[in-house]
Amino acid sequence: MARYVELEAGAAEVRQPLSQFLRPLVEAGISQRKRPMLQLSVEQDKCLKQLSGLANNLNQLAKKAHQAGFERVANEVTQQAAEVNRLLNYFGALV
Asked: What is the domain count for the chain?
């Protein structure tokens, strides 16, 4: 309650409504806070790294498909897509 009286006095001193006086204080406090980070287990981190690598491989295969033709890379793409699907299902079960 003492803090509320102190804030009211501060608002009165600068001739502002309490809400207008508090807004910059609240916004400054929010901007200084750090967003909470999701903590991954070692297993989850490993899975995400594998997914990242597979995504990179799929991008390279897409480039190769545009250059050499889709028929030449269709089998590789199918294998990579199946692996991505497996990892996504596995990661989904962990979370």
From this structure: 2
pLDDT tens-digit profile of 37-67? 556 778 888 888 888 898 888 889 889 888 9
The CA–CA distances, whole Å, from 19 to 25, 63, 66 equal 10, 56, 59
User: Quick one: 46 and 27 in the same domain?
Assistant: no
Distance separating the N- and C-terminal Cα atoms of the chain: 43
Same domain, 58 and 90: yes
Return phi, psi of residue 34, to 5°: -90, 145
pLDDT of residue 36: 45
Structural domain containing residue 26? 2-32
pTM over 0.70? The answer is no
Alpha-carbon separation of residue 40 from 24, 68, 95 (angstroms): 35, 39, 9
